[in-house]
Amino acid sequence: MHCVEVHDHYNFTKEGNKAETIEAKIIQDADNLDGLGAIGIERAFAFGGAHNISMWKENISKNEFYKVENLNNSTIEHFYDKLLKLKDNMNTKTAKKLAVSRHRFMLKFLKQFFREWKN
């Protein structure tokens, strides 16, 4: 039950529920690893497409971006709001190791995305 409870209430704040058992830590790591790398990129864009969220909104101001009605601004913004933070929220040594290469892949993807977007 602890595993499900921690997973359901997981967030990125210091006050968030912490996984205490090894089982909860492994489940949390597995979920986070799914959000990284090639599969994480695919999932992000599939979700964005299914929910009519733009790929990227280049010219939106910071004031506009943080308005409640703009919370799901773009899939690319989701990378910065959540996905790129996953690497630093791993619990186990194995997950930390796996997360590094997946995180690096996402950074390369973003670099290429912006290069193509500008052309």
Characterization of this structure:
This protein is an all-alpha fold and 119 residues long. The chain has a single domain (2-118), classed as Methane Monooxygenase Hydroxylase, Chain G, domain 1 (Up-down Bundle). Helices cover 60% and strands 0% of the residues. It is built from 6 helices and no strands. The radius of gyration is 16 Å and the shape is elongated. The N and C termini lie far apart (50 Å).
Q: Which descriptors apply to this entry?
A:
mainly alpha; Methane Monooxygenase Hydroxylase, Chain G, domain 1; 6 helices; 119 residues
Secondary structure topology:
Blueprint: H1 2-8, H2 22-34, H3 37-50, H4 62-65, H5 75-81, H6 93-118
Number of strands: 0
Determine the mean pLDDT. 83
Order of helices and strands: HHHHHH
Uncertain stretches: none
Which structural class is indicated by helix and strand composition? mainly alpha
Number of helices: 6
**Can you identify the CATH class?**
Mainly Alpha
Structural domain count = 1
So what's the overall shape?
A: elongated
Please name the CATH topology.
Answer: Methane Monooxygenase Hydroxylase, Chain G, domain 1
CATH structural architecture = Up-down Bundle
Instruction: Supply Rg.
Output: 16 Å
Characterize the biggest β-sheet: none
Percent range of helical residues: 55-70%
Distance between the ends: 50 Å
Task: Give the percentage of residues in beta strands.
Answer: under 5%
